[in-house]
Amino acid sequence: MVEKFKIQGGETLKGEVSVGGAKNSVLKLLAAAVLVKGSTKIYNVPNLTDVEIMLNVISELGAKCIYDKKEKSVVIDSTNLSSITARYELVSKMRASFIVLGALISRCKEAIVALPGGCAIGERRVDFHIKGLEALGAKIKIENGYVHAKASKLTGTDIYLDIPSVGATENLMLAAVLAEGSTRIQNAAQEPEIVDLANFLNTIGADVTGAGTSEIIINGVTQDKLHSAEYTTIPDRIEAGTFMAAVVATKGKAIIKNVYPAHLTFFNDKLIKMGASIKLVEPTTIEVSCKNRLSSINFVTQPYPGFPTDLQAIAMTLLTTANGVGIITESLYENRFMQVPDLRRMGADIHQDRNHAIVKGVKNLTGAIVAASDLRAGAALVIAGLMANGETIVEKLHHIDRGYEDFEAKLRSLGGKIYRYDESNTNEDKINDNFNSIQSSQIIKGGF
């Protein structure tokens, strides 16, 4: 089965859409639930392939997981774990599953977790994770592609991260929850997802302070202090930014619900400088609009609270038809311009020089056959298709399904002419007759 998006560009997006739970947060909350000898319920859990993979990982550890599609909730019962091994077959599918290392070494004092392997957007080393765990007292051995971690006990200490790695910060937070004494993580990542993890840990009985700053303190507690709880995941700031960009790209006007504007301060500022209007309607609701051609800007991706690397490809798409020349500097990942060749196929004028991209705005993009190379590049190409004249086909949708729930349905609710089809089992003539008349049997949804 080969799934593709077919997009008819040129439609102005308008209406309202609601953002789901944060993928990059909920994956870590699911892993953190392994710490509890009891049942934990997490709400606002999106139906994504990455979530499915993480549930499979912790299920193989012995946790019982029940996902309620209608309620968007997951119940995890980790009372009895039966394994300390996270297999390569699962960890290799999603790097974020490596986070179970911290939870397992914390609760079980032993863990065997596969090294996550390569990543399409660039190198993501785990040496900061290993160095921090060793500082806490773990003995680490790497062989046959697996990290073997063992500790008779973990002891709190001061850990300085050479770079504010999100994954390392999260793994060390989980490992320190049941360590003896206090752990101080310096130069810690400050992303909202880090704060969400800390809030979840405190909800289940841990003692974490300072999340959201460069210094996080974890005062170790005993296992009996951790308990069952219910928790709601924060909204996905990257999904929110994606819909904001889609509306602005098509010179539309829409209400976006379930968004925390403070999580997108830098991105919002750049959109406004380009010519968009962003109004706060309610504390978690914004109105986004754009009437005229955008103006080009320059930006550099940075760790939070700077410009998010996860929105770089999407912002590049906006620059392709903006007035003037914009310069993008990608400071975090070496391979995060993989959308460039496909945008050029659609008529974009982009010159790439190592980690810099110079984007000269053209009058309009034209539809083409393109392929998602990674999650955010895929979303950028969908937005390009909505902007473009004519028809765009987007292939390799499995990348997009990792991080966007019901992406095409949400865009259609705003008036976008987009749908998913299986090219091996589709009547092209019937499809081309009417973009707006889509039978439910034709729509294939990702997730589980």
- Residue ranges: pLDDT <50 for 5 or more in a row? 118-124, 438-448
Mean pLDDT rating = 92
Please count the beta strands (DSSP E, at least 2 residues each). 24
Helix content: 25-40%
Structural class: alpha/beta
Strand order of the largest sheet: 22-23-1-24
CA gyration radius, whole angstroms = 22 Å
How many angstroms separate the termini? 16 Å
Largest sheet: 4 strands, mixed
Enumerate how many helices there are, as a single number: 15
- 3D shape: globular
Taken as a percent bin, the fraction of beta residues is 15-25%
Brief summary of the model shown:
By secondary structure, the chain is an alpha/beta fold. It has helices at residues 23-32, 49-60, 88-91, 100-108, 127-135, 166-176, 192-203, 237-249, 265-274, 312-319, 340-345, 375-387, 398-401, 407-413, 428-433, and strands at 3-8, 14-18, 39-43, 64-68, 73-77, 85-86, 110-114, 139-143, 146-150, 158-160, 182-186, 207-209, 215-219, 229-232, 253-257, 277-282, 285-289, 299-300, 325-329, 349-353, 356-360, 369-371, 391-395, 417-422.
Could you walk me through the main structural features you see in this protein, from its secondary elements to its overall organization?
The protein has 448 residues and is of the alpha/beta class. It contains 15 helices and 24 strands. The strands form six sheets. It has a four-stranded mixed beta sheet with strand order 22-23-1-24. Strands 2-15-17-16 form a four-stranded mixed beta sheet. The longest helix is centred in the middle third of the chain and has 13 residues, at 237-249.
